Each structure stands twice: as structure tokens, then as C-alpha cells.
Amino acid sequence: MSNLGKLEHKRNEGIVEQASMLLDVTQRLMMKAEEKNPSYLPMFRGNYSRTGIARTQPIDPNPNILYTFYELAGVYASPVIAEGKIYFGSDSHYFFCLDARNGSVIWQFKTGREIRSTAAVLDGLLWFGSFDHHVYCLNSSNGRLRWSFKTKDWVFSSPAVLNGTLYISGIDGNIYGLDAFSGKLRWKYETGGWVVASPA
Q: Of 2.40.128.630, 3.40.50.620, 3.30.70.1450, 3.40.630.30, which CATH number belongs to 44-52+69-190?
């Protein structure tokens, strides 16, 4: 290997090591947030790593129903919990935000089709996909639209957010990396077939 090749290899190793350290720090910060607030489950399966682990007290084997929420259409998206609120979409084309204490509707946002994508919530924003071919970013406190990004087909996948990038895939066969705050396309990867899986 030439000296130039060795330098390039060493530089790449350094980048990978720095990225690994940054990922480790981010994971530790999210774990601390979960420890402080055990009902903090802001993404599909709890976090961007999709571990499915909730650091909560043991579940009461004889729970009481605190409240119920009735929705005419089906609800296939998993709810996420953050900021004392419950967020989820439904086949009625509406995305809902409920007060976690009593189940009252704080706000609702209408899209053009069914919502089966589980949302991600972080830093006052939330993101989800819809069968109307769009990825949406809303203000999590009032449901106002911040931006939307148009894909070529249904968005079934649930987003993951890390270091300012939103990762989501679509039935159009693309995996997208979007700027989480502006919705601008950073990159996309064409798989050649449907993608319903959620990135981790």
C-alpha cells in the first residue's frame, strides 16, 4: 500500500472511531433521559436502536383502566409517549396528540390518507409518514406543520432521528436521509423493491 493509501486508510479509521464515539455518547444521553422520565418512549420500539426496552417500574399485574379513546377507523401505528403526551396516527387520516393523564385530545392533524407509521418525537418536533406519499414534521406542542416531504408512494415505515438526520423508507423502494429540521433531502438509497421496514 502506498503512503497516500496508508494515510487515507488511517483517516477513514479515525472517522469511523469518532462516529462510533458520537453514537455511544448519544445512546448514553438517551438512556439518561429515559432514566429521568421512565415514560419517555419517543420512537417505534422505544428508541432509534429499536431495542424495545422500557426502563420503567415493573408492570402492575392487576392494572386499572384510567381512560379509553374511541376512534372510528383502525389504529395500526404504535403510540409513542413524550412530553406528558401520547402521539399516534390512524386510518381516519388523522394524527392525534392526547394528554397522557386523562386521554383528552390536545390537537389533531389531518393528512390525505391512512397513517400506519409510528411517529418519532424529539426536541419539540415530531415526524411520521402517511399513505398519502408524504413524510410530515409537526410542532409537537400544537400540531402545526413545520414541513412535509413528498415521496413516490406510501410511507409505511417508522422514522428514526439521530444527530439532525431523519431516516425513513418507503414503498417506492427508497431509504431516505432527510434534514430533520428543514425536510431537505440529504441522500437516498434505491433498493429496487418495496421497503416497509423501519430504519435503526
A: 2.40.128.630
Q: What confidence tier does 73 reach under pLDDT thresholds 50, 70, 90? A: confident
Distance CA 50, CA 60 (A): 24
Question: Domain map of the chain by residue range?
Answer: 1-36, 44-52+69-190
Residue 87 banded pLDDT, cuts 50, 70, 90: very high
Assess contact for 140 and 128: CB atoms under 8 A. Answer: no
* Cα dihedral 76, 78, 80, 85 sign: positive
Q: How confident is residue 15, by pLDDT bands cut at 50, 70 and 90?
A: very low
Residue 12, pLDDT score: 52
Give the closest residue to 158 by CA, choosing from 46, 56, 60.
46
**Which amino acid type is present at position 102?**
N
